[in-house]
Amino acid sequence: MLEGIGYLSLTIWVPIVVGILILATGDDRNAAGQRTLALVGSLLGFLVAVPLWTGFDTATPAIQFEEMAEWIPAFNIWYHLGVDGISMPFVLLNSFTTILVVLAGWQVIRTKVGQYMAAFLIQSGVINGVFAALDGVLFYVFFEAMLIPLYLIIGMWGGPNRVYAAIKFFLYTLLGSLLMLVAMIYLFFQSGGSFEILEWHRVGLTMTAQILLFVAFFFAFAVKVPMWPVHTWLPDAHVEAPTGGSVVLAAITLKVGAYGFLRFTLPIVPDASHELAWLIVAFSLVAVVYIGLVALVQADMKKLIAYSSIAHMGFVTLGFMLFNPLGIEGGLVQMISHGFVSAALFLCIGVMYDRMHSRQIADYGGVANTMPKFAALFMLFAMANAGLPGTSGFVGEFMVVLGAVKVNFWWAAAAALTLIFGAAYTLWMYKRVVFGKVANPHVAELTDIDGREFLVLALLAVCVLAMGLYPLPVTDVMHASVNHLLEHVAHSKLVY
Amino acid sequence: MIPPSTDFLIALPEISLLVVASVVLLIEAYGGSKNAAYITTLLGLLLGCVVVAFAGSPETRLAFGGLYINDAMGATLKVLTCFSAIMAVIYSRQYLADRGMLGGDYLALLLFAVLGMMVMISAAHFLTLYLGLELLSLALYAMVAMRRDDVRASEAAMKYFVLGALASGLLLYGMSLLYGLTGSLELGRIAEVVHGGVKSEKVLVFALVFVVAGLGFKLGAAPFHMWIPDVYHGAPTAVALFVGSAPKLAAFAFAMRLLADGLQPAHGDWQQMLAVMAVASLAIGNLAAIMQTNIKRMLAYSTISHMGFVLLGIMNGSLAGYSGAMFYAVTYVLMSLGGFGMVAYLSRAGVEAEELDDYKGLNAKHPWLAAVMGMFMLSMAGLPPFVGFYAKLTVLQALIGAGWIWLAVVAVMFSLIGAFYYLRVVKLMYFDAPAATDTIPASHAGDAHMLLSANGLAILLLGILPQPLMTLCAYSVQMSLG
């Protein structure tokens, strides 16, 4: 550890600094060097995140790797970082995904390579900041700044309708976060002049205030998750974004919303959360059932996976609102698993798109004949998305369903429908794309994945299987923090 | 009575600026080159900064029998005014030179405008306030009309002049009513009388309406905003650049002197007027900006919405609100200078880069300029990590602290709408391919290019470390009012 600079700061600033360095190397004439630099930067970013895992004390729910420095004393704003069992896995997941994204864009991106790589690295650092920030304003700064690189990524390297998708994505998510800003300033005054998130956890609030704060936070996080009915930006953004953008969007940025529920909504307004849990549960179940059906009829593969993401994230928010350890841990495991699986599926679609320049299911068929290695890996991820036991997708869903049974049988029954719908839309898509006769002459000319693509997908396959077979290390990390959170949420902080 | 010599010492910045302005006016008449006038102007403004910094003192002092005040807020605003005038002059040098406008006459007018602002900032008396305001306004009318063969500029100048004169009339009428009510033109004395209770509350409110209307015009707040789009659009870019920068600081000082120094006891009365104006400005500014295709017009409407935010801060009537408004005004000036500076920089002889479409594909040709412009736009939209975010944060914080939560929600909702048109500029620069006929010239003015870079980096740096500027604003306001 460097003197005075903690690992968390490094996970934030290493990617950002490398990203700026890449920008400074100029235009596409230096593309090769820029790619290498980006890979080095993402590897370094992951390396400095590893000690967070190895040095993590799973026995305590306390904040670890804490860093604190004065930032804007005029408003009592601190550069305060720290992780607990809830946030730490996401820093790691994010740093890991960045490597994959850099590798995935290696050959595909041919114009403005430097800006592409820099955008992803800066984005990576900023997202680590979101998960590590313990000061409200610091959190907000990262939370908003995160939008800028993604806006540029979608708009610059996206599909034909990219401008619409980029602006919609930006404004939609900004809508939520601006209300959260008002809520945060309100909390600043309620807590006697503090922007400390942990301090806000302790502030007593009236029911009216709690409900209003709940609504403000709900807007901010529900849009990010995205929950039905504020999900409509996601399919657009996913379809238009380049592969790397879709991967980061699905694997990481959606998790920021769900994380917000655990860091802000539940502990700051526990009474309102209990009061309004039915609403979130209802939205989540609609997402699981209705969006699952919507996914079934999609003709565009990316759109299908986008809707599947919404359905899976519905599971996460459902788990959070059960207020039992199985539900919350299940939701967290589901988040991480979805990070791997959705990233992998978008990468798979990217692999095919790079060759065929089509995402329409109808244009494919019989891919297994020409791309056997790819088909095998794709199969694994499709199964994981459907929640097959033995893959990571199963663990989280199973835990959430178990948790739901304890609360309300019918919730569990409705949620369990996802196992059917998920299997239906994923496997049906897989069947139409990979199996069958080679209907399209272009499919006959496909070449199987090369070493780079194989490496990326194989890394994810290992993660999916490892988490599916032996999830204990992951749940161990969360256990203490989740229990602590539940204990906190169980106590009313109502003032009259 | 002969005023003691310290009075002149207190007014030294203004006096030195007056001397420099006169010298600049004479340089060309006595065979000096245009460059000499330009350099003298810059040095004169720099001298103004230095003199303020040395002559100023944190404690409040009155001079010339209560006409003139020197306090921390005044000193800070004067330094910033001179500084932003320097930036405006450097940004516009090449633009003016290309169009044959760079000369002693233009620069002298500019210096007189700065002098007017400094007088306004130092006013402790309605008379001084009005004199400074008129000196500023007359210089600006003339600057807008500089290109007299240009139809749009002439129209803009005409509109500006007529509406400006009307606003001055309103202001004077309000002041005369206040004089009748309180028996004094001195701001401090008026505050005392109003505090002690006036004979007729009705007349006070009546007078306030006129004074606030005049103020609204000078700030460019709705519903007194009509002149802003036409002037920004019609005036040469260099002039629009100047009109949109330092005078906003003077207008802020004007509001502070008038409302916080003179009429603080009537806070409850003017608060509502300001709240209405602020919401109207946010609505009109942000909604109308969406429809613009000309970047100068778009920035004009964006100014209106930013002034809405400044008004929200002032409306609050607390130290937090005032210092938030001051921080907002200062950062706005910095962003506005950058935005217009870019427009001026990208324009060349015969071509104005003022249509939004001129910015298409800027990133492909000049990635650094696009990045800098992107920073200005995102900062104006109030996104972190740029300084515009903290400006909004301070104002919102003051609002919520005083219990105006609904107003804060309205303000952020309009910023959301505003984000759209700033994003559109980013979209044009980054997502669109450059137009076939390239109107974007290669770098030709090294000084402006460097200043643009510094300006952009300042926006980012102040966004990462906003503390010093925040403290400065809070300290100035605190020392002057607290």
UniProtKB/TrEMBL annotation, chain A:
Pfam family, one: Proton_antipo_M
An example Gene Ontology molecular-function term: NADH dehydrogenase activity
Membrane topology of this protein: Multi-pass membrane protein
CC per GO annotation: endomembrane system; membrane
Enzyme Commission number(s): 1.6.5.11
Keyword Transmembrane among record annotations: yes
Subcellular location as annotated: Endomembrane system; Membrane
GO terms under biological process: ATP synthesis coupled electron transport; electron transport coupled proton transport
InterPro entries for the chain: NADH_Q_OxRdtase_chainM/4, NADH_UbQ_OxRdtase, ND/Mrp_TM
Domain NADH:quinone oxidoreductase/Mrp antiporter transmembrane: 135-418
Protein name listed in UniProt: NADH-quinone oxidoreductase subunit M
Organism, as annotated: Parasulfuritortus cantonensis
From TrEMBL, chain B:
BP-aspect Gene Ontology terms: ATP synthesis coupled electron transport
NADH:quinone oxidoreductase/Mrp antiporter transmembrane domain: residues covered: 123-417
Predominant location category: membrane
GO cellular component: endomembrane system; plasma membrane
Alphabetically ordered keywords of this record: Cell membrane, Membrane, NAD, Oxidoreductase, Quinone, Translocase, Transmembrane, Transmembrane helix, Transport, Ubiquinone
Subunit structure comment from the entry: NDH-1 is composed of 14 different subunits. Subunits NuoA, H, J, K, L, M, N constitute the membrane sector of the complex.
NCBIfam families in UniProt: NDH_I_N, PRK05777.1-5
Protein name: NADH-quinone oxidoreductase subunit N
Organism encoding this protein: Parasulfuritortus cantonensis
Gene designation per UniProt: nuoN
